[in-house]
Write a structure and sequence with these properties.
This protein is of the alpha+beta class and 228 residues long. It contains eight helices and nine strands. The strands form two sheets. A six-stranded antiparallel beta sheet has the order 6-5-4-9-8-7, sandwiched between helices. A three-stranded antiparallel beta sheet has the order 1-3-2.
Amino acid sequence: MVLRAFTAAQPEWGSRPLAAHLGLPRATAHFYLSALAEAGFLRRTAAGQYRLSWHLAEFGALLSGGLPWFPRARNALADLAQATGGLGFLCVLEEGRVVCINRALGDPLATSAVQTDVTLPANATAAGKVLYAHARLPTPEFERYTDSTIVTPDEWTGELGRVVQDGYAHAIEEWIPGECAIGVPLWWEGEVVAAFGVQLPTRRFLARERQLLKRVLKAAGPLGPPLP
């Protein structure tokens, strides 16, 4: 319950606000944070707050290494990022959360576009739309990040229907101002196992959106088309 409090919208916590958020005594929240930091799951910042530790990435590597489709998807993502000069992403669903398990940066100079968030907002990302469109899940929490973020159930339902019909999702400055993304479902043995796509600055994205979609579909297609 403590680790799940760390999200893209709330990447760090102190004991007092975490206690209020979870309805725990402050001493209990402090104990959990300290114990998780000692175990390597959290790290303490210079300001005395707590963030997720990169040690979690090591556990993620062990987990992803056991996925039969992951090596090919990772290689295809690296090629896609290189070809587009964008930020490639590979995301999965974990108990209703959109978890990014791999990223690839095509332009090494575009470091400002790199997100390090492990958990992404479902309602504001192309990955979230793709994964929710192919899963039977309750409506996620709606949090507004920009003026373009989907924040109503009707909008969300309509968007997921479009994603299923069109076979892809896009997010036009819905999470991060000045950044857009396009994503497609990654199929393996007849089911959607991940969302696969790329993110670019708005100007570059809109100038070649159709071309980007073709590249993403081509990169993801050979990994495992849906079974008839």
